[in-house]
Amino acid sequence: MVRIKVHELRGKTRTELHNQLKDLKNELSLLRVAKVTGGAPNKLSKIKVVRLSIARVLTVISQKQKTALREVYKKKKHIPLDLRPKKTRAIRRRLTKHQESLKTERQKKKELYFPTRKYAIKA
Amino acid sequence: MLYELLAATSKKADDKTQALKVAKAVKSGSTLKKKAKKIRTSVTFHRPRTLKKERNPKYPRISAPPRNKLDQYQILKYPLTTESAMKKIEDNNTLVFIVDIRADKKKIKAAVKKMYDIQSKKVNTLIRSVDGFSSPCFACYSHLASHSTVNDMGGISEQA
Question: Is there a contact between A12 and A22 (Cβ–Cβ < 8 Å)?
C-alpha cells in the first residue's frame, strides 16, 4: 500500500481530503470484516497502516480548518475561546502587560519631577 | 455671537412657558391623580412578564462545531461470524453485527442503509460484555438482507 505522506495531504483540498477519508474508512471496515472471517495475514497487517493513515488525514483536515478559522477571526475583536491562547488558567487571569504598566497622573508627575538620581563620589 | 444671544433668550422664553404650563397642571391636580391605584384581585404576587431576548452572541464560543464522531463507520464495527449468526443469515434473512454501544436502533438502521444499501425491516439489539472486552458492545440483527450483499461484505457465506 502507498504510504500516505502528510506533506502530500496538505496540498489537497477539503473535498479531496474528505473523499480520501471515506475511502480509507471503507477499506478499514473491509479489513475488519476480514479479521473476523479469518483473513490473510497481509490483510490483517494492513489494518494498522490504514488506521494510522486515517488519523493523519483527520489531523490534516482539522489543522487546515483551524488555520482557516484563525484567518477569519484575525481582524475581529472577539474571537472564540478555543482560538485564544491557552497557557494556564492563572496566566489568563493575570493583568495584561498594558494594565500593569498603567500609572496615575500623580505618579507620572512624581517620576517626572523627582526621578531617582545617581551620584558619583569623587575620590 | 448675536445668534447665540437670540438662541439663549428664546431658550429662556421656552423654559418659562414650560414652567408655567407645569405649574398650571399641578394646580389643576390632574397630573397627580392620573394614575389610579391598581386593583389587585389575587393575594399572591406573580412576577410580571418581562422581555426575553434571544441569544445573539458576539462570537461563537467554539470556533467550529465538532465533527460527528459516531458516523456509520464507527457504528457498524464488524459482522458476527458465529455459527448461529450464519444460521440467521440463511434462515431468517438477517445480518448480525457488532455495533458501537452508543448507537441506537434508528442510527443502526441508517448506518446499514448507508454502508450496504440494505433496507432493514427491523433491528433488534442486545448489549453483551464478552470476555476480554472492557467496553460492552451491541449485537444487532437486522432483517431483509440479500445474499449478494453478504458476499460483498467479504464472503461470509462462503465460510459457512
Answer: no
Helix (H, G, I), strand (E, B) or coil at B128: strand
Confidence of residue B159 (pLDDT cuts 50, 70, 90): very low
Grid cell locating A35: 479479521
Residue for cell digits 470556533? B63
Residues 52-81 of B with CB under 8 A from A: 58-64, 73, 76-81
What is the ipTM, given to two decimal places? 0.72
**Amino acid code (one letter) for A73:** Y
**Domains of chain B (ranges plus CATH)?**
72-144 (3.30.70.330)
Instruction: Tell me the C-alpha distance between B109 and B117, whole Å.
Output: 10
Q: Which residues from chain B sit within 8 angstroms of residue A34, using beta carbons?
A: 154
Overall pTM surpassing 0.90 (yes/no): no
Q: Which chain B residues are closer than 8 Å to A83 by Cβ?
A: 63
- Of the candidates B75, B116, B110, the residue with the CA atom closest to the CA atom of residue B95: B116
- Greater pLDDT, A21 or B93: A21
Q: Residues B47-70: pLDDT tens digits?
A: 999 999 999 999 999 988 989 888
The rounded distance, in Å, linking the Cα atoms of B1 and A104 is 40
* Of B87, B100, B101, B105, the residue nearest B156 (C-alpha): B87
Q: What's the whole-number mean pLDDT along residues A15-42?
A: 90
Using an 8 Å Cβ cutoff, are B72 and B110 in contact? yes
- Sequence-separated (6 or more) residues with CB below 8 Å from residue B156: A33, A37, B79, B81, B86, B89, B150
A18–chain B nearest CA distance, Å:
12
